[in-house]
Design a protein that fits this description.
With 224 residues, this protein is mostly helical. The protein is built from eleven helices and no strands. It starts with a helix and ends in a 10-residue tail after the last helix.
Length: 224
């Protein structure tokens, strides 16, 4: 990876990139309220299981397929995987998160890379965040493996940040946890790169239940 591509990756996955990821906890807020997650070890366990068999694994795998379609300029495949991912969301909150972040990234692209807008618009009225991410990653010459690594790392960083606010965790504990997750992220990336279409599945009933209950949670900091 040359220096320019590395800087592109860092910009795309930076927590300061204004796509609104910080406003979502992906069920963590409800899990903390239930006491399922209450400290660093329980958050670590949850995140590792998500990387191993959760929805983020499938999301990253679909992002990879959209990346490959974008590389080839295959607009039909981009639209297909965008529809597939939207249909795979188990709750309204999770679907709206994906679409809202996709809209935010699309608005950015109008200024950063306007030549990509025809490809984004080929996905339909709403482009999922993972699909928009894939389009940018392909255009910026980020490799497929690095794109998946960056996508998973960005996801983990965001949820650990939510854990800092909710549990709460100290900043040092948060960085220790992120460092521990690096091996899991590398292992999940290797599995995702080898995952055939017929194995795009996950075990996410815990996330789905937490997400459905979050809608009626008495006090909320996050949108999911």
């Amino acid at each position: 990876m040359d220096d320019l591509v590395l800087l592109n990756l860092l910009q795309l996955t930076n927590s300061a990139f204004p796509v609104g990821a910080y406003s979502y906890s992906e069920g963590l807020e409800q899990l903390v309220a239930w006491g399922t997650i209450e400290d660093e070890p329980s958050l670590e366990h949850w995140l590792k299981r998500e990387l191993k068999c959760g929805a983020i694994r499938v999301e990253a795998a679909v992002m990879l397929r959209a990346y490959q379609a974008a590389k080839l300029g295959n607009l039909e495949k981009l639209s297909y995987w965008n529809d597939w991912l939207r249909a795979a969301r188990e709750t309204e909150e999770l679907r709206e998160q994906s679409l809202q972040m996709g809209r935010a990234l699309t608005r950015l692209l109008q200024h950063l890379e306007p030549q990509l807008m025809p490809m984004v618009k080929a996905c339909g009225s709403d482009c999922n965040y993972a699909i928009a991410f894939a389009i940018v990653a392909a255009h910026w010459q980020i490799t497929d493996k690095t794109a998946v690594l960056g996508y998973l790392h960005s996801w983990a960083t965001n949820l650990i940040g939510a854990g800092v606010k909710l549990i709460p965790l100290g900043q040092t504990a948060a960085q220790q946890l992120l460092l521990k997750l690096h091996i899991s992220i590398v292992e999940s990336t290797a599995e995702i790169l080898a995952l055939p279409d017929d194995d795009l599945s996950s075990c996410t009933w815990g996330l789905a239940l937490a997400s459905m209950a979050h809608e009626t949670q008495y006090s909320r900091l996050f949108r999911s």
